[in-house]
Specification:
heterodimer, A: alpha/beta, ABC transporter transmembrane region fold, Rossmann fold, 20 helices, B: ABC transporter transmembrane region fold, 3 domains, four-stranded antiparallel beta sheet, 10 strands, 9% strand
Amino acid sequence: MTVQTAPTQFSQVTPPQLEDLPYKDYDPEVTRQMMGFIKPYGTKILISVFYMMLSSLAAVVGPYLLQIAIDDGISVGNLVTLRNIALLFLLAQGIQWFFNYIRVKMMAEVGQSIIYDIRAAIFKHLQELSLSFFSRYSAGRITARMMSDVSVLRDFVTWTLLAVARDIFTLGGIVGTMLLMNVQLSLLTFAVLPIMAVMTFAFRRRARDNYRRARMAISWVNSVLAENINGVRVVQSFSREDTNYAYFRDVVNGYNLKANLKAARLSSIFFPTVDFLGTLAMAVVIYVGGSALLGERLTAGVLTAFVLYIGRFFDPIRDLSMRYDGFLSATASADRILGLINAPVEVQDKPGAGELPPIKGEVRFENVSFHYSDDDTLVLQDINLHVQPGETVAFVGKTGAGKTTMIKLLARFHDPTSGRILIDGHDIAQYTQHSLRSQMGIVLQDPFLFSGTVRENIRFGRLEATDAEVEAAAAAVGADEFIRSLRLGYETPVEEGGAVLSVGQRQLISFARALLADPRILILDEATSSIDTHTENIIQQALARLLQGRTAFVIAHRLSTIINADRIVVIQNGRIVEQGRHQELLEKGGVYQRLYAMRFQEEE
Amino acid sequence: MKSIKRLSILLKPYRLRILAIALMLLTLTTIDMIFPAIIRQVIDIGVVGGQSHYTALAAGILLGMGLFKSLISFGNRYNSEWLAHTVAYDLRNQLYNHIQRLSFSYHDHTASGQLISRVIEDVRSLQNFTGQGFIELTRVVVLMIGIIFILITTNPLLAVISLLPLIPLTLMNTAFGRRMGKMFLAVDQTLGELNSRLQENVNGVQVVRAFAREAFEIERFKAVNQELYKKQIRVVQEMARVMPTSSLLVGLSTLLILWFGGNMVINGQITLGELVAFNSYVLMLSGPAQQLSWLINAAGETSAGLQRTFEVLDQQSEIRSPAQPVFLPKLRGEVRFENVSFRYRNEKKDALHDINLTVQPNQIVALVGPTGSGKTSIVNLIPRFYDVTSGAVKIDGVDVRQLDLKTLRSQIGIVLQTSLLFSATIRENIAYGRPNASMEEIIAAAKAAQAHEFIMEMSKGYDTVVGERGVTLSGGQRQRVAIARAILMDPRILILDDSTSSVDTQTEHLIQEALRRLMKGRTTFVIAQRLSTVRQADLIVVLDHGRIVQQGTHAELLQQPGLYRQIYDLQLRDQERFQEEMEQLQAQELKKVNR
């Protein structure tokens, strides 16, 4: 399907493309893998189908009983037959009620359980995936998988699967019963069935495209609207109100209106037409049956039953055509979910990998080279570095030089392409990631805090720490003072992303978190954002406290950090080009001095 | 009540169409009620009475009415959908336009996420309700009244008997609807928790990995997942109870008609046709009896949504151009604060207190002070993002409150640390303040902002789409595009923030260079973090707790004890040290050369 490109103010931005809603053809592999999730509940599903059959047939039999009651009971004044049929009718209703009840309950459990399993599986897999995965696959997409795709699947399992069974049983039951009552008249009535079926399926195909276009249009409207509200201060700063309004009204919202009206037109034609086909069938039954054209006069009971059955014809046909769409979109969702679940885990524990024993903190890079799996360019080349326990190493270099990669390899977010990294002489690739990282502290540039209290966030560093230990850690980095001044002290909730706290305060909390973990090796990506004077002062002291007595690797931005480092390692184009102390390197007049000069120049 | 009045204003342009829809609806419902009567005649006169020519007539009438009904039904459906979408279109436009013009104060106090979802949800609920709910509700009510009337006039006793099961049906579904509403709310809440748990885990993935807390996270997720499972099961179990019971009650109606009605037919109290018609009518009622509560709930939700929507539309922006604005299309750029005090809405303390400041055209003013000292508040008053609480801000001698807002703002350029770009091409983002700028002008602006080079490295150059659906730019790149955006506007007054976050030394250098070019020849207010900026400034204004505590040049202020010296010692000295060492080095180099 192609999407018309609307003329836009923002010329290049067209309505969102359909990439996220592919209606792919049926893929047996997807079904096979999804069956893995469904299998544990196979028996329950089969039983439910059986229940469904019983209740559908009990529903279909109703008009037939009515026919007998009218023709053999009421018309001939036979009260006994009428009573018996009435009782039978009651029984059919009872059966229908009972089996529907237990079936819906059973399938609800099945559907929810499957979805529970899938969500758990996705989440568990997310915990194993390498960090590089998350830079490719945005949080928004992951959420879409977990929320909307999983919901599509749930509805499919809970409702659609069995509805198909019901539709087939109902349709079969109606056709069978009608034939039983009057073959010729039934066949005549069935003449409208193929027309209905063809029309319905043709309609569904076109309607599907229309509705998808309408859905896309509204999501476009919503995203433009959201962007304008989020950026309202910029909008007003640039006096863009009139331009933006015209664009929204005429292009975005207008496109949505058009798309919706197009969808409405089609369905407005379709439903009345189908309705008419039903009336046509009824007229045929009355005319042919009533005028005895086929040699046999229609009884009042048969006429009544036929009228009721014709009224029920269309539902299963329409449902079946809708189910097919449901099936397709469920497959598409399943496909995307599996894409996530099957995403390869780059860094895996070796089979039988042991626990890394408690370390002292001696680190050695041996001929380490690295490139990413999807790009052959070497990011690090032949790195050799030997760091003594307790040493503070500052990495310096331009963006993209390879500083961050060094750190990522050490924390084993990636494995080196060649060479080894040894801690206390142990090759880290031979041990479990968990045992490695639990002895390592990592403080990131953007100090991410989880929703929860300040205390919980600090405790994230060591889950079994006591309250006193948490507070001691906070005090050690100088965070205790401001935490106590918060409304609820340590129990103050932190919003997602830590919005109520300043950047500096969040950094201090992340320092406390790292200090509480008391790692032998500390990795620190220093933040560059500006911080107010008071906090900056505290942070510099906290840093000194944090680095003390452990092996530390710092991607340094503060001059004080660089100058205080035991060793500065200058990285350029993936190689170590210089090593030494600040003064030594400055006097050497090499890369370091030039990097330094660049910062200096702008001060002029 | 008030919202109904407002709604009627919204609907007024379409009143003829609404009238047409109502008429068509009435016709349709009438036809629906005639059908069982025809069947009844067919049975009584044609089948039982043996007048076969009558059935042919009936079939003909049925067909004709069916055709007529389909035509009307088409008109009715299309027009109600048209109405719904058009009203939603209008309302969405109004909201969009209104919200974007509301003042900063309003937006400060309104969570944007909530505002967005309110607009989206409330308009959608109105659209669905006008399109389907309202029509359906009217149809249901007309149908119920009509059918009950027909049934009672046919046979009051049988009418009462057969309608008996519909009473618990209605009551049960009403209660069900209410309970379901609460349950769905609970499910939504848990779903929201699940979502934020996931989001957080993904956004904080580095921390989770860094502390090896995967198992802990899995447990936390499991707890919410289980909670959701339980709540959803509860919803479906409720459905399992109510849905089959509903159809059982409808079946009971048929049973009662069959048994009591059958007896009445045998006793000659009613005809067989009437019995069959009775059954058809009751079946026609059963749907509406189940729907009624849902529809009433939907009506309630829609009206609550409308009320919220109108609340937003009723908000007035206090920042508007005056009735007789002064137009200053070419500002000189003299800015004067006269006894300005300012307090944010709902705050207890003044953000600015008795500020007096005169800035000559083309001067560079550096604002320095701790977080919360009032730097941002000062600059926000110049483009009138907020109005002063007392005193006046004057540009070229005219109070900003007397100026035409658009002319004023179009001559003020703003570059902040976190630069928001829109989902559009880079070209369109640069031209944001001047949509009609030529490509040459855009490129020139990008070059001046040191952005041209990285833009050209992108596969589509200036046509690269950035933002949510496009390429993600780094912080430094975004900032340079924002600088180009401001350069292109060629503002007389410039407001900026010289801090660069999360960029490497080289990029920082480029950005500072771009900012320096931007400041030339304009009145500039800089929220300053850097030594280079304060040194360059013609005037440094030191703020503390909303007051100006010191003013002067860098050299002057360093001489005196005070806040400026403290800030310098802590923050700026670091930068100074770079310089000194470099000077030493250069001196050494010089010596070498001289030797």
